[in-house]
Amino acid sequence: MVNAEKEKEYQAAYRLKNATYLKEYFRAHYQKNKARKLQETREYKNAHRDYYKNYLRQYFLDHKAEHLERSRKWHQAHPEQKRARTANRRAKVTSEVITKQDIAYCHRKQKGKCYWCSKAYPRRKYHVDHVWPLAKGGANIRANIVIACIPCNLRKGTKTPAEFAGRLI
Ligand SMILES: [Zn+2]
Predict the structure, then answer these.
(1) Please, where are the H alpha helices in 63-112?
(2) Residue 108 alpha carbon to ligand 1 centre in Å
(3) How far does the centroid of ligand 1 lie from the alpha carbon of residue 119, in Å?
(4) Conformational region of residue 38, where left means phi above 0, alpha means psi within -120 to 50, and beta covers everything else
């Protein structure tokens, strides 16, 4: 009993006296371990790369119908997200990201009418158009997007607003 208490005291004193050293020691140990773990994971993945590639491919093929159906349902339930995603993908997004809120904002602002021809577009059939085309350096930001009916968007393509001779901004 007495010994156990002494031992405890000794340990506490040791920890206190060597606090800095211990902290460094554990940190170094952690870092070393971390690097090793990462390296191990990398090596493992490299060694099994083909296996994983084939496995994933096969998995996709086996569940293709299921996957497509799920994807279709999701897009149906989340039309804005899909449009946002497409707009972002087309912009090869860096830091500016169009959100579904941005698209909802455009719907409200335009009152459900195409920006270019002012006709009402069907509820789920519209394009998010970059007013100043991405291909010509337009930004992928809310201020540069409008909702366009599909025919207008396709006709506009990568024309600038002036070239398109639509409603000028
Ligand atoms: Zn239109």
Answers:
(1) 64-77, 79-90, 100-110
(2) 16
(3) 6
(4) alpha
- Cα 130 from chain centre: 20
pLDDT in tens, 96-142: 678 889 999 999 999 999 999 999 999 889 999 988 888 888 888 88
111 three-state secondary structure: coil
Burial of residue 110, with CB atoms counted within 10 A of its CB: 0-12 exposed, 13-18 middle, 19 or more buried: middle
- Using CA atoms, how far apart are residues 145 and 127, in angstroms rounded to an integer? 10
Query: Ligand 1: distance of its center to the CA of 74 in Å?
Result: 27
With CA atoms as reference, report the closest residue to 142 among 93, 89, 96.
96
* 128 contacts 147 by C-beta, under 8 angstroms: yes
What is this structure's pTM?
0.46
CA distance 126 to 140: 18
Strands 145-148 and 127-130: antiparallel
